[in-house]
Each structure stands twice: as structure tokens, then as C-alpha cells.
Amino acid sequence: MQLNLxxxxxxxxxxxxxxxxxxxxxxxxxxxxxxxxxxEECKTWLVNPEMPIPKEVTEIHxxxxxxxxxxxxxxxxxxxxxxxxxxxxxxxFNSNRFDIPLLAEEMLRAEVDFDMKNRLSIDVQTIxxxxxxxxxxxxxxxxxxxxxxxxxxxxxxTNATYEVLKAQIxxxxxxxxxxxxxxxxxxxxxxxxxxxxxxxxxxxxxxxxFGKHKxxxxxxxxxxEPGYFGWLLNADFPLYxxxxxxxxxxxxxxxxxx
Length: 258
Prior knowledge:
Layout: E1 9-16, E2 26-34, E3 40-46, H1 55-61, H2 65-68, H3 74-85, E4 89-92, H4 95-109, E5 121-123, H5 124-131, H6 136-144, H7 154-171, H8 179-185, E6 198-200, E7 206-208, H9 218-224, H10 226-234, H11 239-257
Parallel strand pairs: 1-4, 4-5
Antiparallel strand pairs: 1-2, 2-3, 6-7
Helix pairs in contact: 6-7, 9-10
């Protein structure tokens, strides 16, 4: 079957040095871009993370320090990656909680202004867990009746994710072949940032989701406690979270001027 798309969607997968969004780095990225007319294009990069890859992580994805020693650092490919995805929605397996946040951090470190304002994200894992609750390999076997050869290879995982989504749409009448529907269905909570430090309330206003100000409006806290903003910017929060906070503060400031 062919996905019913109004704009391109880029399915992607990252292999990394670990699972810490703010500290770990990409060692491999694969992108499968699917256009509304069904055309597909795929690109894979090995990346020098500029830090050692832990042995236990290499045992999972098979990429060692030697494999990436002579590969480009992410900053040198960031614009190429951005140009491939800039007009597209994004799709992946556990992408809302890991791949997209980590990609955003790498982009911002490379001084590429990445955000999700005008794009949707479809997390195939969330759909899978809502329907069946298994792993990608099990999903591939369950939906496509195929064994996932080369699991934890970014390219193999990316292609499997794309095939699983198409099979999910074909299998479940409750799923609409529509990017907006799938994005909403695969979103578990409405976060204002990727990492879950900022969340929208029922009125669509940004609130803190952690610490002493949990549940309070960001604008109220920043107005009543200006020093808290400075602490947040200097603390070990993801760059994208800091970007969102800065945008909220500037918007509030401009509203006062208006």
C-alpha cells in the first residue's frame, strides 16, 4: 500500500553512543524520505561522535570507535541532513522520546535552527504499543511476517519501521491513512519541548512538568521569579528545552510591549 501523504515524511533511525539525550552523540543516521507520489529516497551516514563509544553499546549496534574514526563529525553533515528533512514530517520507532530529541540537540549544537513547529511526528512504536506492545523485531515479524535481519543497524531499522507502519494501517480499521491522524495517535502526551520538561495544559499554555514549579505556567514563574530563567539556561537541560523557554520569555516580553 501507499501512504496517503500531503507532504513528504522522513522515517529515520539513530545509532548513538548511549541514551542520554543531552550528552550522547550520533554514530549513524539513516533517513528514508517518502514523497506523496510514492517516490522514496534513502541516505545513511556513519558519524564520528567525537567521544568514545562504550563497549557495551558497540555490542548492541556493532559500530566501534575504529568504524567511525575517519567519518565526518555531525556538524559537517548537519546542513545536508536538514536539507533532506526540512520540508517533511518525521517518523520513527520510539522517535518522539529519543530520536527526535537527540537529533534536535545535535542540530542545535551544529548551529542549525531545528524545530517541530510546522511538522508532524509519527511514532510507530507508540502505535505498536497501543495495539500489541512488543519490540521492533517482533513488530516486523507480527505485521510483515519477516525476520528483521541486521537489527540495530540504522538502515535496517529505518526500512522496517516504514514497512511496519504501512502494515499497521492496512491491519487496523481504527487507523486512518493520514499523517495528522497518525501523529496525534502516536503522541502520548502534549509536551512543549521534546524531553518532557515543559507540557501544555488543557488551555494550550506551557507549564513546567518538573521540580518545585511543576504544574505552574511558565510565563507566571518567569515573571515572578526572573532568576529561575537564568538558572535554567545554565543548568544541564537539553538545548531544545532552553530554546523553547527563551521563545516563551521573548513572546511574553513582546506582548507586554504591545
